Amino acid sequence: MYLRPEDRARPNRMALRIAVVGGVGVALFAVLFFRLWSLQIIDGAENLAQAKNNRTRSTKIVAPRGKILARNGEVLVDNRTSLALQVDTSKLPADEAARNAELKQIGGLVHMTLPKVLKRIEEEQKVVAAGAPITVRNDVGYQLIYYIEEHPGKFPGVTVERVFVRNYPQEEEAANVLGHAGEVSEEELESGPYVNLEPGEIVGKEGIEYTYDKYLRGTPGTSRYQVNALGEPTPGGKLTSTPPIPGKNLKLTINPAVQRAGEAALAERGLPGAFVSMNIHTGQILGIGSSPTFDPTVWTKPLSNKEAELFFESEVSPLFNRATESAYPTGSTYKLMTALAGLENGYITGSTVVDDNGYIELGTQKFENSEGAVNGPISLVHALEVSSDVYFYKLGARMWDTPDLQDWSHKMGIGVPTGIDIPDGFDGLVPSKKWRDELFEHEPPLTDRPWSQGDDVQLAVGQGDLQTDPLQMAIAYAALGNGGTIVTPHLGMEVMDAAGRVLREIEPGPRRHVNIAPESRQLIMEGLHLATSGPGGTATPVFAEFPIEIAGKTGTAERVGHGNQSWFISLAPYPNPNIVTVVTIEEGGFGAESAAPANKQILEAYFHHDIEKENEEKTEVAEGAYGEELPLEEAETGEGG
Q1: How far apart are CA 455 and CA 89, in angstroms?
Q2: Do 119 and 304 meet the contact criterion of CB atoms below 8 Å apart?
Q3: Residue spans of alpha helices (H) in 128-180
Q4: Measuring CA to CA, how many Å separate 324 from each of 95, 264, 459, 481, 582?
């Protein structure tokens, strides 16, 4: 039978659609099945760990830094607990208006206006690493903790944390060398000694805190706790806790009596200046200070830009350590280097006599003695006693076309790194023919003339372009006192654990040895001794009644735009010294006017027990002579008997 096309069976379109949809469904089910199988079987363990992590949080427990102690165990720096209001800025609203509204509420908690809060956050973000919480205010009260805990949803990202803050029981003592600590910055995390640390850790920033940070900084602990879906800690949700390991303690070489005497001596003069007292055999710093100084507790709080300007940009910045970072001419205290260069290179001997008629002339230049003094024929020892400039002018003039004076200056530690264990900045400058001629030959010239004989004449008496500091001068005089050893000055003495057990002794050892002929040393030491005890000694009026024999040298340095700078350097006791003390006071006048009396105050503190013992012996002698005890002044003069 013939079927027409319209009579043939037509495909069931509904069945086709069902088949397509069914195939797609089977495919999707297969994909879903295999995905679930992968999540549960292949990645099951990893996903389970991630799920658990979503229910837990961990916080860092900051470790307290180690204490810094003086050599007698007296605490110079330790820690105190402080409550800090901190904000995690990543949890603040993205909308600026909402963000500011919340910050205004946060500021209200600690009596700060919104502009102050915004400024504090901006300043803190410059000095702390990204992701670290911002400290809005330190030393807040416990009431704030209670209030925030009672309103957990009102201040997201805001916490009051117990933090360790550096504490200074001795207040300003040794502030310029102790340095300070603070949160590691983003730049420090990218390079340098702190590259492997985490945001929020407290590290040394300057001074001793920086140099010995690896000992002082402890190891942070961690605390893990369970949180709910909102990320808030659940009641009783603490899981594990790893306690922090405190930092080691550091004992310094500082002698508190010497340190206080030096700082007091500078403070009494009321002028900028510095002092250094050092053991000439070991390089241990017994006292070091700079004036003006500052209260180191300033670093325990965030500094505003205005406060930072006061410290960093002020002309008499208290942060500037004049003992190790200054660039001063030294006046006549530099004659030590000139005398050594003259003796050791054969320009003079102990018997060489120079006619000091009060001045010398070089071309159109006239170089005179201080206050126009005329000393007549004098040898080296007498020239040191009376501080004859003419003697050393003539000696410098003889050396002018050689590097002898510069070489001996460098040998003695002038114009070279000192090696001290705190950052000390500028290394100083011993001007030379090569140095000035290169400046003159520069295009365009960086100086108005080449080197001349007058430059060596000026350098011979510690003037001209010379730039050095008290620590370098202490090293040079120490080398004379100990026979030629260039010591490594250091403040670190011992690293100890919390129980006081010594873990490491800090003994850097000498840097090098300079061959100084015993005859040269003896001549110079004799001249320095007469400078403090001889009839014409420039410091004899200051030390005439001092019971300890010393060798020393005054210096009066001229500085452009300033009054005369006062210097005095002592080696004590004479003839076998063990301590060098350097004092310089800006605009302090002649060396004997301010620096020498200040130096004497430091020596009185160092030799306190020896002076007391000698006074007791005098009293006993007086009692034996008169049959009864007399006041010391009467016993010495024989009056009242």
Answers
A1: 60
A2: yes
A3: 142-150, 175-178
A4: 51, 19, 21, 21, 12
With tokens 């060098």, the residue in question is 580
Which region among 12-21, 206-215, 250-259 has the lowest average model confidence (pLDDT)?
12-21
Q: How far is CA 607 from CA 257, 482, 547, 576, in A?
A: 10, 19, 10, 15
- For residues 109 and 434, what is the distance between their CA atoms, to the nearest angstrom? 65
pLDDT at 70 over 70: yes
Q: Mention every residue, 6+ apart, whose C-beta is less than 8 A from residue 528.
A: 336, 384, 551, 552, 553, 571
* 449 pLDDT higher than 90: yes
Rg of the chain (C-alpha set): 36
The residue that leads in pLDDT, 481 or 234, is 481
Predicted pLDDT at 228 = 61
The residue type at 368? E
CATH class of 256-624: alpha beta
For residue 203, give both structure tokens: 């590290």
Sequence letter at residue 248: K
Alpha carbons 400 and 113: distance in angstroms, whole number:
66
Cα–Cα distance between 136 and 150 in angstroms, integer? 20
Q: Is 433:496 a contact under the CB 8 Å cutoff?
A: no
Alpha-carbon distance 94 to 92, whole Å? 6
Domain boundaries, the chain: 56-74+170-252, 256-624
The domains spanning 56-74+170-252 and 256-624 adopt the same CATH topology: no
Q: Are strands 221-227 and 56-61 parallel, antiparallel or unpaired?
A: antiparallel
Beta bridge partners of 247: none
pLDDT of residue 191: 85
Class of domain 56-74+170-252: alpha beta
Give the model confidence (pLDDT) of 567-625 as tens digits: 999 999 999 999 999 999 999 999 999 999 999 999 999 999 988 887 777 777 766 66
Q: What is the pTM of this model?
A: 0.82
What does the block give as tokens for 597?
A: 């009396």
